Amino acid sequence: MKNTGLIFGAAFGFLGVALGAFGAHGLEDLLVANGREATWETAVLYQFVHAGLLLLLGILDHLHSSTKLIRISIWTTIVGILIFSGSLYALSLTNIKWLGAITPLGGLSFLVAWTLLFIFSLRIKKNQ
């Protein structure tokens, strides 16, 4: 899909604002009861950081004609947000502790995405 990084980056950024506000206001009692305020905040923070990464990757995708490293980095970032933040949101709402065991898979996806961006940056030719 063309503009994948930009589309998902903007969508996850929007959702980060909405979920952050909803957690602080609409879900405050539930999160406090579950002892999961910090877990929710971590999910929102990682979603925001990686929404920004998606925007950067989307721009690089346009500037460098959709290189394979950038496309894979975009998709591993999307998967990372869904698994990492998604599992923390679910854990916060349900307090089902085994959901926390899924979270590191999302973190691994983030590490892959950042590694691919690092490799890409080493390969960029000057004046391209």
Distance between the termini: 23 Å
Q: How confident is the prediction overall: mean pLDDT? A: 93
Would you identify the regions where 5 or more consecutive residues have pLDDT less than 50?
none
The count of helical stretches stands at 5
The helix-strand sequence is HHHHH
Q: How many β-strand runs?
A: 0
Features:
single chain; 128 residues; mainly alpha; elongated
Overview of the molecule:
This protein is an all-alpha fold. It contains 5 helices and no strands. The chain has helices at 4-26, 28-34, 37-63, 68-94, 103-123. Helix 1 (4-26) runs antiparallel to helix 3. It is elongated and about 55 Å long. The model has no long low-confidence stretch (mean pLDDT 93).
Topology record:
Layout: H1 4-26, H2 28-34, H3 37-63, H4 68-94, H5 103-123
Write a brief structural summary:
This protein is mainly α. The protein is 82% helix and 0% strand.
